[in-house]
Specification:
The protein is α/β, with parallel strands linked by helices. The chain contains ten helices and twelve strands. About 50% of the residues lie in helices and about 15% in strands.
C-alpha cells in the first residue's frame, strides 16, 4: 500500500503568466491541494528541493529554462526523480505533446483549462497514470530535442561571451577612472599640504605664537595627509586589480626599513600605550624588492595590528631567513579574527568590526578605515612573488587571542610578467 502523505498534497506549479498562476492555484486549493507557485524554471527547481511536491505542473513556454529543460532536470534530481511532471500548456499539436513526454513529462494537459476536469486529471496522475510515446516516435523526438538543446546552448554561450566582454570593458573603464581620479586628487592635496607647511614655516620665522592658528594648520595638514593615504590606497588597489603595479626592484635592508617604519608609528604607539617590539633583524640578508611598495605592505600590517589591539597591548615584528626567502611575522595581542573570516580579510573593502561601533578616528582602537590596507598588502606581496596569510584562534574581545600575519618573501624578484597575447 502506498504511504499517504501527511496534510494536504503538495503541488508545484511553474508558470510565468500571473493570470494562469492565480487560476490554477485557486482551483486546486479549492480541491484541498497545497499549491506552491514559481515564475520561472530556475526558481521552480529550487522550490522543488525545498517543498518536495507530490506532483509538478509546468508550462512549456516559460522564461529562462524551457518547460522541456525543466522536466529533464526534474528527472535527474534525486528529490524529484519519481515525482510526476505534467505539462500544462497552450501548445496543442501532437508533436508538441510527444516532445514534452520525451523530455521528461509524464502527462500533457492543454489550455484553455477545463476547470471541471483538471482536479480529476491531477488525481489520476497522483494515482500513478503516465502517458507514453511509441519507440519510433521517441527516437525521432529525442533527436529533435537534442538539436534544440544544442542550439540553445550555442546561443547561450554566445550571449555569455558578449556579456562577459562588456563586463570586462566596463571593469577596465572603472579601474582607469579610479586611477585617473586618484592622480587628479593628488594635485590639490599636494598643494594644500605644501601651502600649509609653508604657512607654518612663515609663522615660525616671524615668531608668531598664535597657538590656535598653529593647531588649525596642524589639523589641516593631518587631514590632508590622511586624504593622501586614502587616495594612494584606492589607486594601489586599482593597479593591483588591473595587474598594472609597476615594481622597481632594488636591494633592500629590511632592518633599516623596519626602523624607519617603527619611528613613524611611535606617536600612535605612545598615544595608545602600546608596546611595539621588533626582533633582531641583523641576521636577515638583503633582499631584492621595491622599497616603497614593500614599506607600504609592512606598514599596513602594523597599522592593522595596532588597530585591533586594545590600549596597553603588544604588537611585534620579527623576521627570519629561510631557504631563498625571508619569513616575516607581525603578531599582536588583539581581539583576533574569526576562523570563518580569515580567508576574506584580504578582500577589498573588508571590515572586521561591526560598523555600528566603528570609530571615526583612524588611530583609535577599532578605528576608521576603508578596509583596503590588507588588500593592498596582499597585492604587493603577491606582486613580489611572495605569500601572505594569517593565523588566529578566533575572535574574542575578552580573552584577546591575538593574530599572527605571515609574509614569505623571496630574496630574488620573480620573472617579469609577460604581456597578454592578442
Amino acid at each position: 500500500m502506498p504511504t499517504q502523505p501527511l496534510g494536504p498534497i503538495k503541488i508545484l506549479y511553474i508558470e510565468d503568466d500571473p493570470s494562469s498562476r492565480r487560476l490554477v492555484q485557486r482551483l486546486l486549493e479549492a480541491e484541498g491541494f497545497h499549491v506552491t507557485v514559481a515564475e520561472d524554471g530556475l526558481s521552480g527547481l529550487e522550490l522543488a528541493r525545498q517543498v518536495r511536491p507530490a506532483l509538478i505542473l509546468t508550462d512549456i513556454n516559460i522564461s529562462g529554462m524551457t518547460g522541456h529543460e525543466v522536466a529533464t532536470r526534474f528527472k535527474e534530481m534525486p528529490e524529484t526523480r519519481h515525482v510526476p511532471v505534467i505539462a500544462l500548456t497552450a501548445a496543442t499539436l501532437a508533436t508538441d505533446r510527444d516532445r514534452a513526454l520525451v523530455a521528461g513529462c509524464d502527462g500533457y494537459i492543454t489550455k484553455p483549462i477545463d476547470v471541471d476536469a483538471l482536479p480529476r486529471i491531477i488525481h489520476k496522475f497522483l494515482a500513478g497514470a503516465r502517458e507514453k510515446v511509441s519507440e519510433d516516435v521517441k527516437v525521432q523526438r529525442l533527436e529533435e530535442y537534442r538539436n534544440e538543446l544544442g542550439a540553445r546552448l550555442e546561443k547561450t554561450v554566445a550571449e555569455l561571451q558578449k556579456a562577459n566582454a562588456e563586463l570586462r570593458r566596463m571593469d577596465k573603464m572603472k579601474k582607469d577612472f579610479v586611477i585617473l581620479a586618484g592622480h587628479e586628487l593628488r594635485t590639490p592635496t599636494t598643494l594644500i599640504y605644501g601651502y600649509t607647511s609653508l604657512l607654518k614655516m612663515e609663522m615660525q620665522q616671524r615668531g608668531s605664537a598664535d597657538d590656535h592658528l598653529n593647531d588649525v594648520i596642524d589639523r589641516i595638514t593631518g587631514a590632508t595627509r590622511r586624504l593622501n593615504e586614502v587616495v594612494d590606497a584606492v589607486i594601489n588597489v586599482s593597479l593591483i586589480d588591473s595587474e598594472q603595479l609597476e615594481l622597481v626592484f632594488k636591494p633592500v635592508d629590511l632592518a633599516a626599513m623596519t626602523q624607519a617604519i617603527v619611528a613613524d608609528l611611535q606617536p600612535i604607539v605612545k598615544q595608545r600605550n602600546l608596546q611595539l617590539v621588533v626582533g633582531d633583524l641583523s641576521r636577515v640578508p638583503t633582499l631584492s624588492a621595491d622599497p616603497n611598495y614593500l614599506r607600504r605592505a609592512i606598514t599596513n600590517l602594523l597599522d592593522n595590528a595596532i588597530k585591533y589591539t586594545p590600549d596597553g597591548g603588544t604588537v611585534s615584528l620579527d623576521a627570519v631567513p629561510e631557504e631563498e626567502a625571508i619569513h616575516l611575522v607581525v603578531a599582536d595581542t588583539g581581539i583576533g579574527i574569526d576562523r570563518a573570516e580569515q580567508e576574506r580579510i584580504f578582500d577589498k573593502f573588508y571590515v572586521l568590526e561591526d560598523t555600528d561601533f566603528h570609530s571615526t578616528h583612524r588611530n583609535n582602537f577599532l578605528g576608521g578605515g576603508f578596509g583596503l590596507g590588507l588588500a593592498v598588502a596582499h597585492g604587493i606581496i603577491r606582486a613580489h612573488g611572495g605569500r601572505i596569510w594569517v593565523e588566529s584562534e578566533g575572535l574574542d574581545a575578552t580573552r584577546l587571542p591575538g593574530s599572527r600575519f605571515h609574509i614569505l618573501l623571496p630574496l630574488t624578484p620573480p620573472p617579469p610578467r609577460q604581456p597578454d597575447s592578442k
